[in-house]
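Module 6 notes. Inverse folding takes a fixed backbone as the condition and produces residue identities as the prediction. Think of it as a translation problem where the source language is geometry and the target language is the twenty amino acids. Below is one complete input and output pair. Work through it position by position during the lab.
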């Protein structure tokens, strides 16, 4: 495989599991030095160990991007350890769903907006401020969702609003900063092979049966498939791709 990210430093938030872990592994496989971030240390250490077993280089940095100073600390750790910040993937997010708007607790609304929108904003701001000082700039990929800007699902109003905001924020930031050498895009996954796509009490087999009829592709996306889309947008192959929102959902939002 081509080493598209050799000697580049990549920061991935929400890297302790799911799409974040798959993305961190994929970047490491293509030569990147990867900083894996999240709120809990143990799963981050597992990601670092998996990367190390495959001959890659990674650093675990526990941090909450939604808290003051968290995003800046991640940037400083990446630069301090590896010397630069060339790529950032803002994947950290939470889902609190199942209830219609009239019954949605304010706490669930604030939790999703705080992490999914404010966390991305704070991360973007810290990352851009560093990247625009570098001779080669940098690339940022934000993980949004097909729920929000692309499709609606009952009981997901707060989540959809937060992820639609990620799409809008990504496009606005892309326009603001491409002239400074910072290229920003988004990926919007649909149902993916993670615990987030399981209904309450549902097994993976039950989900597979449900998805046979729910999306044109007939299955959930693999985390590696979403990661491949992220790597494309972060790579030089996408050098003229600016402000796009790449939907990876098996046709679910068509």
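Target side of the pair, the amino acids:
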């Amino acid at each position: 495989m081509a080493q598209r990210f050799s000697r580049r430093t990549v920061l991935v938030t929400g890297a302790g599991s799911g799409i974040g872990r798959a993305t961190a592994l994929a970047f490491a496989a293509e030569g990147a030095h990867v900083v894996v971030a999240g709120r809990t240390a143990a799963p981050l250490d597992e990601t670092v160990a998996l990367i190390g077993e495959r001959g890659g280089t990674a650093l675990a940095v526990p941090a909450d991007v939604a808290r003051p100073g968290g995003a800046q600390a991640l940037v400083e750790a990446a630069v301090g350890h590896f010397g630069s910040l060339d790529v950032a993937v803002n994947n950290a997010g939470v889902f609190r769903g199942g209830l219609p708007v009239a019954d949605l607790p304010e706490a669930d609304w604030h939790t999703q907006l705080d992490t999914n929108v404010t966390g991305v904003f704070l991360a973007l701001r810290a990352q851009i401020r560093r990247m625009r000082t570098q001779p080669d700039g940098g690339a940022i990929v934000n993980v949004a969702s097909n729920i929000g800007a692309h499709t609606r699902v009952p009981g997901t109003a707060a989540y959809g609003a937060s992820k639609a905001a990620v799409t809008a924020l990504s496009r606005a930031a892309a326009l603001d900063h491409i002239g400074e050498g910072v290229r920003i895009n988004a990926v919007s996954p649909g149902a993916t092979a993670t615990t987030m796509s399981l209904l309450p009490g549902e097994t993976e087999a039950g989900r597979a049966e449900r998805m046979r009829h729910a999306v044109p592709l007939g299955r959930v996306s693999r985390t590696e498939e979403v990661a491949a889309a992220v790597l494309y947008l972060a790579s030089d192959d996408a050098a003229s791709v600016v402000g796009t929102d790449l939907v990876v959902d098996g046709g679910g939002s068509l």
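Reference fact for the lab report: The chain has one domain: 9-248.
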